[in-house]
Amino acid sequence: MLTLYRQEIFKLSKRKGPLMAMGILAVFNLLVAIVIKLNGKMFNAVGVFAANFLSTWLVALLLIGATATIVTSEFEYNTIKNIIYQAGSRQRVLVSKWLATLTYMVFLYAYMLVVNLLLKLILFNTNFSLSDKDGKFFIYQEWLYSAWGGFVKMLLVSSLVFLIAVLMKKSSAAIMVGTLTYLAVTLIGNVMEILLRKWEFLKWNPLNFTNYGNQLVDPTFANITHLTTNQLLWGSLAYTAVFLALGMWVFANKEV
Fold first, then answer.
1. How many CB atoms lie within 10 A of CB 42?
2. How many Å separate Cα 17 from the centre of its chain?
3. What is the pLDDT of residue 154?
4. Distance from C-alpha of 226 to C-alpha of 58, rounded to nearest angstrom
5. Contact 214, 220 (CB under 8 A)
6. Taking the CA of residue 66 as centre, how many other CA atoms within 13 Å lie in the half-sphere pointing to its CB?
7. What is this structure's pTM?
8. Of 29, 52, 93, 220, which sits most exposed with the smallest number of CB within 10 A?
9. Mean pLDDT computed over every residue of the chain
10. Any transmembrane segments, and where (predicted)?
């Protein structure tokens, strides 16, 4: 298993995607930071920094693409049979790919935090301190909560993308489903609130659990989700495990 994991990390490091993702993320955050700096009266610098310079959506799209291609590329290049033969187990192949994806997720979120911290120190060091209060939380707490909430959401979304990638064998289909899911989560907040008022049981649907990050920063979101913050966290992890298990089952029984 360790050998397979190292191979997946090696293949991932040799792709252009991770370097391009780092460059795109750094440039985007820099541009946002400069706009905020030059228009300080129009924008709330503290809020934008705490939201990681509005880059969590970009990180999500980059990770959706990476998650889809790490599986589907083996089907598209007809290398999946060789990998399974070398590994001796389909389960090992899929677990190694998931662990490599998880490692990349941790790396990209850590990279985002480092870039944003550097931008704060360079451009906004005299504007506010990380230890200042911003409403209920310290700024550094709100900043880290935002990143952690985005990470937990991406665990859930990535596990769904993993499942779709195994089912469809096409990166485009998996990327499309993952992107639409992420956008749906962002757009249907008001609709979800109306639906939950009428049908309480809908609070257990997976889309509702992607609000964990929102509720972590703003506890009043409980009025929309109808769940506690801890329930959202554990529910997100549970759905992640379910989607991964389904992907494992499909892959184990699918003709390759």
1. 8
2. 16
3. 92
4. 28
5. no
6. 33
7. 0.88
8. 220
9. 85
10. 20-36, 56-77, 98-123, 143-167, 174-196, 232-252
Task: Tell how many helices (H) and how many strands (E) occur in the chain.
Answer: 13, 2
DSSP calls for 203-233: GGSHHHHTTHHHHHH-GGGHHHH-S-HHHHH
Residue among 148, 168, 166, 160 at smallest CA distance from 185: 160
The span from the CA of 26 to the CA of 230, in Å, is 32
Question: What pLDDT digit, counting tens, does each position of 12-57 carry?
Answer: 878 888 888 899 999 999 999 999 988 877 788 888 898 888 888 8
Can you tell me the distance from the alpha carbon of 228 to that of 215, in angstroms, rounded to the nearest whole number? 9
Q: Which helix (H) or strand (E) holds 39?
A: none
* 149-152: Cβ within 8 A, 24+ apart: 149/212, 149/213, 149/214, 149/216, 149/217, 150/52, 150/56, 150/59, 150/60, 150/109, 150/213, 151/105, 151/106, 151/109, 152/212, 152/213, 152/233, 152/236, 152/237
| DSSP assignment string, 81-137 | HHHHHHHS-HHHHHHHHHHHHHHHHHHHHHHHHHHHHHHHHHHSTTT--TTSEETTE
Strand extents, DSSP E, the chain = 133-134, 137-138
- Tokens 């906004």 -> residue: 124
Closest CA to 206 of 238, 245, 230, 176: 238
Beta pairing, strands 137-138 & 133-134:
antiparallel
CA-CA-CA-CA torsion sign (169, 171, 176, 182) = positive
d(CA 199, CA 180): 24
Helix (H, G, I), strand (E, B) or coil at 138: strand
Q: Is the pLDDT of residue 221 over 70?
A: yes
- For residue 55, what are its two tokens? 């880059």
Task: Give the pair of three-digit tokens for residue 81.
Answer: 């049979």
| CA dist., res. 25 & res. 221, Å (int) | 28
How many beta carbons lie within 10 A of that of residue 20, not counting itself?
A: 11
